[in-house]
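Quarterly update from the structural biology core.
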Amino acid sequence: MVEEMVGLGFKQIELSHGIRISLVPGILQAVEEGMVSISTVHNFCPLPNGVQHAAPNYYQPSAADSRERGLWQRYTEQTMAFAVKVGAQRIVMHSGSTWYFFGSPEEKLEKWLKESELMACDMLDDKDFERQRDRALKRIKRASKKTMERIKAGYGLVIPRAKELGLTLCLENREGLEEMPIDREYAGFLEALGEPEHCAYWHDTGHAQIKHQFGLLDHREHLTEMADRLAGFHLHDVSEKGRDHQVPGTGTIDFNMVAEFVRPEHTLVLELSPKLTVDEVKASRDFIGNLLG
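Predicted structure, tokenized:
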């Protein structure tokens, strides 16, 4: 796996939330031999015991069940220990989600979108979509209050360990409406957590663009608001149909705008669909390289 990425011209890689424990010895050997360096790891990495598929939300700090929150803490701390082993300073984090006993408002909205056959690029101009979206958001915001209290408490348990190990927990913006924090509340939540050296923001360009198409944020304004806490990027494009993890420069994202916010200290990660060809991966690498010089 590592050899293939190095063969494509990458000297640094992110270890994702799909790394099985069986892959760890080979990764450690590649790092020890200087074949590659690790820029970031994505919680959970390696995967929790018995899990064989990518599962960043397998346990959540937002869970009402205290046992699940405890497992989230345990495997987050395991990820921290692994990050130290591979020499990565930054950990990309998902922060949980709201939950509903009587049907998910996001699922209802997705069902409506499927039946309407509305293109993602046309949603901002559609009044019917706006009404359906706002109806869903009303329920999500109501449920988010108690959820965010649990999430804040969860981070309060793991941030001290991150400080002790010299790591930064990077909270990633998400594409799901029910995933927390709500985008407009992100800056305030990070400010409440404090510890800017150990608790930062991670910007996923595709997720932000999906939210932009939903009318939930303005991509540029969101980056402007989060710039002071920004640690890195997941870079990928979004098609007119709303499909993300596409080749940068082929979709709806204004990467010239995104480039205005990139700083030398930021970590840049291409996060591409596994369906892309080798040539498309190389095209993605070259596009970002040419854009940023």
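The two ends are 28 Å apart (CA to CA).
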